[in-house]
């Protein structure tokens, strides 16, 4: 219903993506990597959409990074392959990972501990193929990963290359680049991370441990790569498709490279406190920018004189940086555009992205949400069926034939399209599970 409509018609708060800018950002990163001679394995965590994934892979649908199993399943179902689940292996999700590894040509996991590796070896893949495992090393980022200088890192790498697992590569995240100010500092971090990674690759080679790939990444480090990065196999930035104010401050991009905005409407004038009230609170923007900007929680596009000074769940307070606010410039119902400090955090607040070109909506993108895809609800012939997936197997829990689909909660009915086929039933327990009739 929104296609072809101007952005000004959208219900607010609205998260918008400038398709031309996002496409340009994706193309530039591809060109950077081609010039460097390394593969680009883009991270999907910023947008979590199939459409964004197509842009970032140049349409190949291969070679991506995800940070949740929900993302992994979503992209696999959307036709993507060669997916790296770049997160320290959660023990409760090994069976889910196995289902994906048995389904795809190349589903890869990441470990940084012997205990996680033991979990994989204790669940060999039914295809007979070994698990494809990346070893995460910590290159001064101080989050996940084993220190490359720790003898335990080499022992773990040797163990990965044996039995039911094989080494896919060495993975490092330049998360400490987010603390940099300016290109020079960022490049120093990229240089250091690359050196540590390549030195560890040499240790593996000397120890006779096969390791085909090395990968580092972050949007700051990959926006201004250093020459030594050409010795890597691949890089894995993600935020660059959108960019944001944080990236501007680091030096990764310019204002014209930021593809996203949050549109909000003025809903209140309060002259006694010199403030406007807008309909975007922290549920539409996030609080990640707290204390980071002189303009408050975001930049108000086109209005450097304004400051977003506070947010509650659904309200934002805007006041002038100095002096008296001219309320006549911002009548009730008028629109303001907020440039988010952190696009990843802001995008995570919105169920739909309004994608525009030339100010008119051309697409809507609907991101995947959550950490492990929730049970699906299928409506058919007035019967509600809950389909619970685990390790690639589905159990069908029988609903009540007396319960019409229209009596289900709206959020369930709206989220699940009707189906014309009734799935095979499986009784659960002695009596099965039935939804009680209404009323």
UniProtKB/TrEMBL annotation:
Entry protein name: D-serine dehydratase
Pfam family membership, one: D-ser_dehydrat
Domain D-serine dehydratase-like, first and last residues per copy: 259-357
InterPro entries the record matches: Ala_racemase_N, D-amino_acid_metab_enzyme, D-ser_dehydrat-like_dom, D-ser_dehydrat-like_sf, PLP-binding_barrel
Gene Ontology biological-process annotations: D-serine catabolic process
Gene3D superfamilies tied to this protein: Alanine racemase, D-serine dehydratase-like domain
Keyword terms, alphabetized: Lyase, Metal-binding, Pyridoxal phosphate, Zinc
Sequence ranges of Basic and acidic residues compositional bias: 422-439
């Amino acid at each position: 219903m929104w296609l072809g409509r101007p952005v000004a018609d959208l219900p607010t708060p609205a998260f918008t993506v400038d398709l031309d800018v996002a496409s340009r950002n994706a193309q530039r990163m591809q060109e950077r990597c081609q010039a460097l001679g390394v593969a680009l394995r883009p991270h999907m965590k910023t947008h979590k959409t199939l459409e964004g994934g197509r842009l970032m892979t140049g349409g190949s649908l291969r070679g991506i990074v995800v940070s949740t199993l929900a993302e992994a399943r979503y992209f696999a179902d959307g036709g993507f392959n060669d997916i790296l689940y770049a997160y320290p292996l959660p023990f409760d999700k090994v069976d889910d990972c196995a289902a994906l590894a048995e389904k795809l040509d190349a589903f890869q996991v990441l470990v940084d501990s012997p205990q996680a590796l033991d979990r994989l070896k204790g669940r060999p893949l039914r295809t007979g193929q070994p698990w494809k495992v990346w070893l995460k090393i910590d290159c001064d980022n101080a989050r996940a990963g084993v220190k490359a200088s720790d003898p335990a890192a080499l022992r773990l790498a040797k163990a990965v290359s044996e039995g039911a697992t094989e080494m896919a590569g060495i993975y490092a995240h330049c998360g400490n680049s987010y603390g940099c100010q300016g290109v020079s500092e960022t490049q120093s971090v990229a240089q250091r991370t690359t050196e540590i990674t390549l030195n560890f690759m040499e240790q593996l080679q000397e120890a006779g441990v096969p390791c085909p790939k090395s990968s580092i990444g972050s949007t700051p480090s990959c926006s201004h790569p250093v020459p030594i990065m050409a010795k890597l196999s691949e890089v894995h930035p993600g935020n660059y498709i959108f960019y944001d104010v944080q990236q501007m401050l680091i030096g990764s991009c310019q204002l014209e490279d930021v593809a996203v905005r949050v549109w909000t409407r003025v809903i209140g004038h309060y002259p006694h406190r010199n403030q406007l009230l807008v309909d975007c609170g922290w549920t539409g923007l996030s609080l990640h920018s707290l204390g980071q900007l002189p303009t408050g929680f975001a930049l108000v596009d086109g209005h450097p004189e304004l400051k977003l000074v506070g947010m509650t769940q659904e309200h934002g307070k805007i006041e002038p940086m100095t002096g008296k606010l001219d309320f006549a410039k911002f009548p009730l119902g008028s629109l303001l555009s907020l440039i988010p400090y952190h696009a990843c955090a802001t995008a995570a607040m919105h169920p739909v992205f309004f994608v525009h070109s030339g100010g008119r909506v051309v697409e809507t993108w609907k991101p995947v949400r959550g950490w492990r895809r929730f049970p699906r609800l299928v409506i058919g012939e007035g019967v509600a069926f809950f389909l619970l997936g685990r390790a690639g197997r589905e159990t069908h829990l029988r609903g009540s034939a007396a319960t019409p689909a229209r009596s289900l909660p709206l959020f369930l009915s709206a989220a699940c399209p009707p189906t014309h086929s009734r799935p095979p039933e499986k009784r659960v327990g002695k009596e099965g599970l039935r939804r009680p009739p209404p009323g």
